[in-house]
Design brief:
20 strands; alpha+beta; 5-stranded mixed β-sheet; single chain; 5-stranded antiparallel β-sheet; 374 residues
């Protein structure tokens, strides 16, 4: 017989940190996902849901079951319409009311051209406050977070209204430079823990652990990896008679005084440079606030003469008075000297990249995320 604890599907992780691993997700976890989507977004048969993600990316499960679990229409995006003006045209022509789009793809689009989009969810990467402010008018804008290992979605934050600052959306925020990832979705528990699995106080950075109904079975055929990431949950009900597990995400977060989670960075996005530990996301957030910068990516690269150095890649802001084709507007040039000086006033000298490169657009993976390897 088919049981709720049986495997419903297997999705392989991107393999950004090694060989891809197959994550086995149970039927009850998938049902928790569907129930949560229906509860949160009030989807019905009048909605038209976009499927933008590849079937190899877990967001495709999110999109398909958002539609199939609510009687909505599912519209598959063709390969030629995955970003920019072609994607805008598809959303408008197909009268899409509900879509999940990564921040990297949203930066290539013009929010003013999509008046029919009722709900927009962004996920997969850090969402800058400026991007949220641009897309909030006229629709619901939600920022979600979740690894494959917890059935796609684990936390959610709705940006309340246009013009509202990041700090107002997240009382007690210390200004990490990104929209909060929010509060746990239904049937999910979030713990922010230190290296000894102790709960950290509000405002203190720790690693995020997830538990609850949506937790995956583990990595298929990889008991060693499963044991290292799916660990015993010391905070589960001691009287339940069942030993529950929690998933170690590798993501660094903190609780704000307002009770929401701020994403700080990845444990594997930290680099050590001349004995100093650096969080690359902190540099990227500061760069995105610089004049003329719309998007920034910072990586550590090996230089044959200087050893490990920081390299920054910048994309210029759009000119709102222009009518180019890149995303509704032409770009304004980035003055690297101005950006370097701006950054130097906000971070220590050792965090200022040695190399700045201006790109027309950042390369993306098939999942619509920034391709750091490229």
């Amino acid at each position: 017989p088919l049981r709720a604890a049986d495997t419903a599907y297997v999705i392989f992780t991107s393999g950004s940190t090694g060989t891809p691993k197959g994550v086995g997700v149970e039927h009850r976890s998938a049902m928790g996902l569907v129930a949560g989507l229906r509860e949160r977004y009030r989807l019905g048969d009048e909605d038209r849901v976009l499927q933008l993600a590849s079937a190899t990316f877990d967001a495709s499960v999110w999109e398909m079951w958002a539609a199939f679990g609510s009687g909505a229409v599912l519209v598959l995006a063709p390969a030629a319409a995955t970003a920019g003006v072609p994607l805008e045209n598809l959303l408008r022509e197909q009268q899409i009311t509900f879509a999940v789009i990564t921040p990297a793809v949203l930066t290539s689009m013009d929010s003013g051209r999509l008046p029919g989009l009722r709900v927009l969810v962004t996920a997969g990467e850090v969402c800058p406050p400026e991007l949220a402010a641009a897309w909030t008018p006229g629709r619901e804008f939600h920022n979600e977070y979740g690894p494959t290992e917890n059935a796609v979605r684990s936390t959610v934050h709705q940006v309340a209204e246009v013009g509202q600052s990041f700090e107002e959306n997240a009382p007690g925020s210390r200004g990490s430079g990104s929209v909060p990832i929010g509060v746990p979705v239904a049937r999910t528990r979030c713990y922010v823990l230190d290296g000894g699995l102790g709960l950290v106080p509000t405002g203190v950075v720790g690693e995020l652990y997830l538990a609850g109904v949506q937790l995956a079975r583990g990595y298929v055929g990889r008991a060693d990896l499963t044991a290292g990431r799916f660990v015993a949950d010391p905070y589960s009900d001691p009287f339940s008679g069942v030993g529950e597990r929690m998933y170690r995400t590798g993501d660094l977060v903190r609780w704000t005084a307002g009770g929401v989670l701020e994403y700080v960075g990845r444990t594997d996005f930290q680099v050590k440079l001349r004995g100093l530990r650096i969080e690359l996301g902190e540099i990227e957030a500061a760069l995105c606030a610089a004049p003329g910068v719309r998007q920034a990516v910072v990586i550590a690269r090996e230089d044959e003469h200087r050893g490990t150095v920081l390299a920054a890649y910048l994309v210029a802001t759009h000119d709102p008075d222009s009518t180019g084709t890149g995303g509704g507007a032409d770009t304004i040039g980035v003055d690297v000297a101005v950006v370097r000086r701006f950054l130097g006033e906000r971070v220590p000298e050792y965090m200022v990249p040695a190399v700045f490169t201006v790109l027309d657009a950042v390369p993306l993976t098939i999942s619509g995320k920034v391709d750091r390897k490229a």
